[in-house]
């Protein structure tokens, strides 16, 4: 199945290159990464994308949205979820080199785990990653302060990263979504006004979760593919995994598969309209 997907994306890539498929212009796409186990491959992807896309900082992103500026270029915002240790290495060795700023969404409980057994249990049970490698572990508070010093942004990503879709207890939801962000603000002495839903798809987000997050944060990030519009505080991201190459990523950024996620985007936006 993976091989078939790769073949399809290579074909679509050349369709885009040859302009058989319409080429995306003047759009804002947000990339979502997690653990980065190959720094060299990651840097090559950034270098390739810089040929056609402009990487924008979180601050410029906020300015564009708050001033309702017209998008006149192909813009990319980088985000990283879950707080893996590899993220600080990416920030220091690659993002600094290319002067790229990003948003790092962190589950509060994860970065406080110190025992190897606790870290691995969290990754397996809460992040739902079954194939654990010896290098797969968490950042700590010192790493987050380093990210802030490097001018990156920290966003909230719940307390435990558990799937909260069917959680009815409002106290638990408030603790997971709001209290954990308040803890981050206190510890880091930085305003936390960004939130990413854990797992991030419609099947993982309830109207109640949306309501709670909406009253606390300025922007809400999902894991649903799609181009972003300036009239919504709910944002869509293209998930990039370890197996994706430049052919895959180019096809995603061109919006070729956006139609598959249209119903999810419409439904999530409707959650906000009802509030």
Structural description of this entry:
This protein is of the alpha/beta class and 275 residues long. It has a single domain, classed as TIM Barrel. Helices cover 41% and strands 13% of the residues. The strands form two sheets. Strands 1, 2, 3, 4, 5 and 9 form a six-stranded parallel β-sheet that branches. The mean pLDDT is 92.
Provide a compact summary of the structure:
By secondary structure, the protein is α/β, with parallel strands linked by helices. It has ten helices and nine strands.
Give me the count of strands: 9
CATH superfamily: Glycoside hydrolase/deacetylase
The helix tally amounts to: 10
- CATH fold title: TIM Barrel
Largest sheet: 6 strands, parallel
Keywords:
275 residues, 41% helix, three-stranded parallel beta sheet, six-stranded parallel beta sheet, TIM Barrel, globular, alpha/beta
Write the layout of secondary structure elements.
Layout: H1 2-17, E1 27-33, H2 39-49, E2 54-55, H3 58-66, E3 74-81, H4 86-95, E4 102-106, H5 116-125, H6 141-149, E5 153-156, H7 170-188, E6 194-196, H8 207-216, E7 219-221, E8 234-235, E9 238-239, H9 246-253, H10 262-273
Parallel strand pairs: 1-3, 1-9, 2-3, 3-4, 4-5, 6-7, 7-8
